[in-house]
Write a structure and sequence with these properties.
The complex is a heterodimer. Chain A is α+β, with helices and mostly antiparallel strands. Chain A is 29% helix and 13% strand. Classes of the chains: A alpha+beta, B mainly beta.
Chain lengths: 235, 139
Amino acid sequence: MHVYGTRSEHFGMQAVAQRFHASRNPDAIMRVPITLDDWRASRPIAEPIRLFDCSLENDGAAAVIVTSLARARDLQQPAVRVLSQVQYGAPIHVQLCDFFSTTAAFGEREGGAVTASRRLFAEAGVTPGDVDVAMIVEPFTVAVPLTLEQYGFCERGAGGPFIESGATRWPDGALPVNTHGGSTSEAFVHGVNHLPEAVRQVRGTAVNQVANAEVAFICGAISDPSGAVLLGADR
Amino acid sequence: MSAPHPRPDPVGAEDAHFWSYVAAGELRIQCCANCGVHRHPPRPLCAECGSTAVNWVPASGRGEVWARTVIHPPTLPAFTERTPYCAVVVRLDEGVFMVSTIVNRDPDDVVVGMPVQLVITEVEPGLALPLCRVVDDSS
């Protein structure tokens, strides 16, 4: 925020978008839509993070079945392909935090995610522009612009304006993010619930279905260590 | 009367080393004996050259506010009466980062880039912590 001028309202706009997504999702815990004014009225937790930027506290579970493509095609539900996956640690490992290593203080070194994202997209043979929908694990909404920037969906520092443009909001955004509502509005299951939503999107069975979604991006919290997956439709 | 302040809970031998210096009133950080790069939080290996050879050198305590936040309830019981308070990441002149709090400014007046000095301060009997004072350079 200090370097790029990202505003706390950018986080709020993502919270509002995700609550809208959740309002249409019968599995979501928080289904009452909120406005940016509601977000402003929510109490501060650790500035600039407000209550509505925080993930929920709840029980929950999710599962995926990973098998061969041949077996997956033999099952009742349409198969989804894992296009590529990466895991990474930061160049300078600070427990659960990659932020220090991605700044000028460290000579503009790349964050671990930046390096990993190149491999992620190269191995899948796609570019960030080919991605139709993204699930970004957000312990706090701040993770969304950070992830969008580090994985190349927008320029560094442009994550806030990207959200402000409506790009992350279903159905009209160029890259709807957390179409199930995410950790802040659907449920907090440490991001495991983000993976089945990505599967539903490329199958074409999501509640907030992105039209003709072929490629979905899923990322663990933008921390250290972390990882990401690209899923593709099997057609 | 607020709840007792949580005590440092070292996660390894190097961390315990750091806190033993603090308890003795000294702010010391690791400096790689092979390549001379400072590092903190304490770790067994140098991330630059991989060496385990290390010296614990006195830190200046001088630095600047690199990041700030203001903490509101809920917190651990020991901190509730202090809220809202400012938590900062300080970048020391040696290039390492430390988490601390600012004791001589209102939270809303703390901005990134402020020059600060870490001072080992007894916050309650038997507990010393490196706390941060903004260095007044306006006069």
